[in-house]
Specification:
Length: 395
């Protein structure tokens, strides 16, 4: 499918040079099935790259070689027109939270103060107005599915506050144990915040079990939930050890904080007509969608997080990697100066370029999924980024 020519040592810089020649007809993940009909490349690729040694060259994977293949794509958008922004804000403000969501959101505000009802209304509008919910969800479960997603987001908010704002690893571990421990903790719980986490999780467990394909997808859901939990441990770790901040790790580990696999996994549990044979391809869609959601969240929340001394955002990671800021700047400069440096840089364009690249990869998967209206889902992700950009500083 591809060939590599090792041209040997370059005497001037002690680097090996390799030429990769790729034919048309290279198939996208998760399958290399030549009958699938969907091509990653629409023309031939011939590229020369310098690398440290020939052994490394032979270990380079095609996916890594092609990661910037469409790097010249222009961002689909970098800001939302004011009129459209006003329309989005109106939809969010008009969204009515259910009785169950109000109960848990008010209890959240009793123990934590970092977020308000606007965020939960924002999420409700995302799940019901944008197309980000899978088209296969049975309408009779739509209200329940939406509530489950918002309430699990409240749980996410709690863990995020503890990891990033309070930086309390001990409390974070207690909350995680409360989720994974099956026995009831109410009788001897000494920390009401931990008991609240347990209460949320028990409610969510009961509601998810009512969905028609729960048994079929429960193991996958719990695996995805563990990845989500690991994102908080990573976040807590980098806030205490900022010297280890790395953009690649942030993009991969921290992305699970966005819960796209969890949200859409809940959709699948409520989707009687979803074809399980398409699961590898739809999970590839979720992978790219989750990265896109992470970008939208980073671009719309980093200023709030800076004020909370939460430096886990990819915005700060990128700024440090490109020497827009360094660790001393984060500690010594005023918040206003840090914001000014970031806003005067190419941070927004960089992340929107990345968002666009993931968007293009999603488009290449359309022909592999038939039981879900994938076109509607992809269009929904365009709406989601508009919702994020329109609510900068409000959530």
């Amino acid at each position: 499918m591809y060939e590599m020519d090792d041209l040997g040592m370059n005497e001037t810089n002690s680097m090996y040079t390799c030429i990769f020649r790729c034919e048309k007809g290279i198939y996208d993940t998760p399958s290399l099935n030549s009958e699938s009909g969907d091509l990653m490349l629409d023309n031939y690729l011939d590229r020369t790259i310098p690398i440290g040694n020939a052994f490394t060259a032979r270990e380079i994977q095609l996916e890594n070689l092609l990661i910037n293949y469409k790097s010249d794509l222009k961002p689909i958008m970098t800001k939302v027109p004011q009129k459209e922004r006003n329309e989005i804000l109106e939809k969010i403000n008009k969204y009515e939270l259910s009785e169950n969501v109000v109960y848990f959101s008010e209890k959240y505000e009793k123990y934590f103060e970092e977020r308000n009802a606007f965020l939960w209304k924002f999420l409700g509008a995302i799940f019901t107005e944008t197309g980000a919910t899978l088209s296969t969800v049975d309408k009779k479960y739509m209200d329940s599915v939406t509530d489950i997603k918002i309430i699990i987001s409240i749980l996410c908010g709690i863990l995020d506050d503890v990891a990033d704002v309070h930086k309390d690893k001990e409390l974070l571990n207690k909350m995680m144990n409360a989720i994974y421990t099956k026995e009831n903790l109410y009788s001897d719980c000494k920390d009401e915040r931990v008991c609240f986490v347990k209460e949320i999780w028990e409610f969510l467990s009961d509601e998810i079990m009512k969905l028609p394909r729960y048994e079929e997808f429960k193991d996958i859901f719990m695996y995805d939930f563990k990845q989500f939990m690991n994102a908080f441990e990573y976040s807590c770790l980098i806030n205490k050890n900022p010297k280890m901040i790395c953009l690649q790790e942030s993009e991969n580990y921290d992305a699970h904080n966005m819960m796209v696999f969890i949200f859409n996994g809940i959709d699948l549990m409520a989707s009687p007509k979803f074809n399980e044979d398409e699961l590898p391809h739809i999970r590839t869609v979720f992978w790219h969608a989750q990265k896109m959601a992470r970008i939208g969240n980073w671009l719309s929340t980093w200023k709030r997080e800076l004020k909370q001394n939460d430096l886990g955002s990819g915005v700060f990671t990128y700024a440090i990697s490109k020497k827009i800021l360094d660790e001393n700047d984060l500690n010594n400069l005023s918040k206003e100066e840090i914001i000014s440096r970031i806003e005067d840089s190419d941070v927004n364009e960089f992340f929107m370029n990345s968002w666009t690249q993931n968007y293009e990869k999603l488009n290449s998967l359309k022909g592999k999924i038939n039981s879900i209206d994938i076109e509607s889902y992809i269009n929904g992700l365009r709406s989601v980024i508009k919702y994020h950009l329109s609510t900068e500083g409000l959530k």
